[in-house]
Amino acid sequence: xxxxxxxxxxxxxxAFAEPSLVGQAFFENAGGSFTCKQxxxxxxxxxxxxxxxxxxxxxxxxxxxxxxxxxxxxxxxxLNVEVDELSFGPSTTQNTxxxxxAFAQMMQPGDAxxxxxxxxxxxxxxxxxxxxxxxxxxxxxxxxxxxxLHVDGLKKLLDSNVRVVAFPHCSxxxxxxxxxxxxxxxxxxxxxxxCVDGVSYVPxxxxxxxxxxxxxxxxxxxxxxxxxxxxxxxxxxxxxxLPNQGHYFNAADPRxxxxxxxxxxxxxxASAGMADYVDVLYAHHHNEDAPAAxxxxxxxRLMQAHEREILQPLxxxxxxxxxxxxxxxxxxxxxxxxxxxxxxxxxxxxxxxLAPRGMMAAGGDFYxxxxxxxxxxxxxxxxxxxxxTHYTTQEEVTRLIAALEDVL
Length: 408
Known about the structure:
7-stranded mixed beta sheet, pyridoxal phosphate, Aminotrans_V_dom, 14% strand, lyase activity, alpha/beta, Selenocysteine lyase/cysteine desulfurase, 2 domains, Aspartate Aminotransferase, domain 1, globular
């Protein structure tokens, strides 16, 4: 099957059978996606059958531990990394904070880090705080007209003092997909670590982290059809070099070195449902077996082809509208389906007007205050953001365009 079967996809999500949601189209997926039934099933099973301390010798505890281990193994396989390179935390924001503290322990005054003003604050703020400890913070600026990051700006900032470069796979406002593999190579050739925030990208396909070349890759499972967890890949040998942030007696376990608060057992176990979902989609569309990472790549291509097809009419509408400004590229092939719109009225007000028309969307700054300021946009005014993923239909986008015509 060469096209995504959207009806089959929607059958995998309980929300589309929920009576209270009938008639409403969900366009706030960048804030958190609907949860697939595979995750719901695993979470319910854990809470009803396995809600005990895991890894003890009795049956319920053993099964709990096995399910948690299964989640790590299968998600690592999807991402094409080693099991010990993947760890879970309560959120990506928390994971980044812990990561920055680990780097702070092995950096010296005069060392430098590079952050961007295209990022969500979660991948910027924790690194910026290191300036209080004598670390130099350099900012890679976006183009003030387009919001894009250009590689020349990175090259001007790189030198032998730079230890880390933190940048997004794509912005939660601009949504342009950045050339991660190219930038990672440049960063590493300069002797620095490439830390990539994939939160806004991964809802549109699980990446091959090994192929991207990222030293660190972070994303959130609650935006990828799963429970509220942050997932973090730290490639070896970097993970072994970084100081342990967990209990001292767990220092030898790579999966515990960067989770000082300990994992949420049920949510970690339920995360395996995301891998179940990818497998179900793959099996529905393809007959041949394939390794997990290849299944993820094939499913990603199906997802993205559908998203781009239904995204382009929305982009064309916004670009042509006299009272709207599109943030980011107008070409669906260059971006994720996260569409930020600047209008005469505040984004929050537009979102309120969309709600009675059956459109679930949001307005505001979306924790990208620095980016909005760089684009000359008052964060208090904010933007309207309409965002979708592969379970969205062409009919829903058509309805959204009609609703936007009304409220703009």
